[in-house]
Amino acid sequence: MKSIGKMISSLRKEKGMTQSELAEKMNVTDKAVSKWERDLSCPDINTISKLADVLEVSVDELLQAKKKEYSDTKLKDLINLIFKAIAVAMGVAVIVLNILNKIDIKSSVIMLSIGILCIGIYLLDEK
What we know:
This protein is mainly α. The protein contains 7 helices and no strands. The protein folds into 2 domains: 4-63, Orthogonal Bundle (434 Repressor (Amino-terminal Domain)); 68-126.
């Protein structure tokens, strides 16, 4: 997760603004903007809304609230994908090894149980 200073710097550069131009729009000095971007100080709470407007983002985006939610969602999706992949892999492995006569019943049951367990964890998480 980026610091607010890195976020301000990144958004300012995306807009093609210099620190001086941002400072002028914010009615602060370019030294203040420099300190924000280096995380030596933070914008005043009363200026956050104006800063978000100038950088054309929401206050939540500026403060990283939405980016964290996005990261949490991506992580949950990845974990669910892994559980589904393990379940499918176990099923396919049992079928292939059974066709090749390279697996016994006990090992087949264990592998299928692992697959079913992964599906169960995935379904419990979905609720």
